[in-house]
Specification:
Elements (H helix, E strand, L loop, with lengths): L2 H6 L7 H7 L9 H21 L5 H21 L1 H4 L1 H16 L1 H18 L1 H4 L5 H22 L2 H20 L7 H17 L10 H20 L8 H26 L11 H26 L4 H19 L1
Helix pairs in contact: 2-3, 3-4, 3-10, 4-6, 4-12, 6-10, 7-9, 7-13, 11-12, 11-15, 12-13, 13-14
Amino acid sequence: MGRAQNAAFHEPVMKPRQKAAMMGAAGDGDSFGDGLAAAARSIIADARRALADPELSDAEAVHEVRKALKRWRALLRLLAHPLGEQADQMRAEARELMRALAGARDAQSALDALADLRKEVTKTDLPFSPTSMETISQRLTAIKDAAEQTGFTKDMRGRLSRYLDYATLSLERWPLTAINFDTVADGLTATYRRGRQLLPDNWAEADAEHLHDLRRRVVEHSHQMDLMEPLWPRLGKVWAEEAQRLRNRLGACQDLAVFANLTAPHQPLAPWRSRLVPVIEARRAAHLKTAARLAGRLFAEKPKAFRRRIAALWSARQAKQK
């Protein structure tokens, strides 16, 4: 990949709703903080829609709520310094809500891992009969259905609604309009540094927990950069696609780790452990090889260089508007 393309990985693109909400951050008469406030309101609205939409299944609603909470936590991380303890507390509460919804998500992760392995049938010749594959799928689906029934209850929906109410009230009190670009740039750089520091020295030997932490930082960094999209429109699609590829590869490794845990003694997939583990490890190795290459590009710059880049882009944007 050429040097120009590599540089473009620091110029992201945003989801449509976020993009519309954040256009004020780049100017057009609004303050930078006004754009942050608009983005925050958009995230809360997305979570509310997921809870209220009667056309969404429980699994779909959980997925959409968790996506919104991830974006919300990324924004709170970005605002940790100006908002202080309240941002940290609300981010921790959002994490607990996500964990409470994780039961069904773990079962879906295992199903996704099985689908990933099935795609490789012609390459790896999975040592299972169609009957065994169907039995495994049925067991995982039963686990998922049970988790949805016990996890996404009326009480859980109430907890989520109350949290979103509190977030809305808090948002009205936060001094977001006073936040300037330098404060946010410092937050962006801190998240970038945390992600870069988690890159494994030896990807093949990285454990599942380490890779999970790295993926969380990649997701957080990706969401934060999305908020800044109006500042870096050029070649933003390249960044977005590459960041998503890394998230997908690390996510696939996480799915495989969940799947592997279900093959342990006394777990639902224990009867197939001896045949599943070698295939899981081979698929994981393939994902890690690609993830290492993608991460090397996305985190190529040192944090100080990254900070200088975004500051220069902001200055150029401001000069163009004068």
